[in-house]
Amino acid sequence: MSAITPNPQRVVVLGGGILGVSTAVHLLREGVTVTLVSESELASGATGRSLSWLNSAGARTDPYHRLRTLGIDRYRTLFAQNPDQDWLRFDGGLFWDSPGQATATEERHQHEKSHGYDSLLLKPEQIAEVTPNIEATAVEDVAVFNPGEGWVSLPHLVDHLMEEFDARGGELLTGAGRSSLEVVDGRATGVRTADGTLHTADAVVVACGAATPSVVAEHGVKIDNGSPVSMLVVTEPVEHGVQAVLNTPRAALRPNPGNTLAADHDWYEASIVEHEDGSFTIPDEVVQELLDEASALVAGTPHLTANNWKIGYKPIPGDGEPVFGELERIPGCFVAFTHSGATLGLIGGELLAGEVATGEKHPLLETFRPERFER
Question: Where do the FAD dependent oxidoreductase domain residues begin and end (predicted)?
């Protein structure tokens, strides 16, 4: 392992989502002094509107699959320590494709089995044997059930981690506005908030979700950004009995604390309007259409109504792979940018904090370095 920025005493973490909070807490565990800076309130960005399905299903590169399975492992450890809370569950994930795509679903199952991922191929009438309260008639061909998968409510997780952050003496600054990376003589030296205040540091972690590429682009660093606009809808409380995370052709659905459900998908993206002030709107009838699609997945098709919905950019690097590590162009600046912010939330923060605190690159992050976009 090669040396990078050595042993910083003070680090500023820019971004109040799960990756920023997790990295900050892991840095505090390493004995580093940490200031966490958030544009608005904690979990107000993508972390607050994530389906947060904990998985490594489907096809992806071997290093990415390995990292995701380790991410799930860290959540299992947390779950073992807190088995009675209602914001982290491991009740499996259920996937099915569009009608006529049985072959593709079977290939997905075979791929998962080929590298030891727990995967069951089910006919509609078999679904009730492994997970309750799914409307079996919604599945026309076959489905894949992954027993080891789960979900997390990231705002609840952020609250949980911030208890430790406070206990370990971390400094929190919320409502900082659009902040920027400060670079002097080619090296990261801190973060400047919207009001002009400079927070100096030996190292900076940029974990701003979909805004991460633009923060470093101001200093000539290229990270391709493929982030789309997306929405998460949380329902009013309803008796539903659903336990698994559902990923289906017209709706993705999971349980949520308070006997509610959380739903998203991507077919409605063209209906979302982004305004000049950066806000988003979507017609109420489109939101209800998504919930009607979700209702059709639940046994008894309960009527689902929206309590709230949140819209914004979903962080996705241009090549789909995570981005972790120190910038070669700007020593002292580390980035965390990934689609799988939920699954990688704990492991990503742990490994990146280790790199920041010890000055040693971790081999598990080797293929995810930001410089690949420059090359």
Answer: 10-353
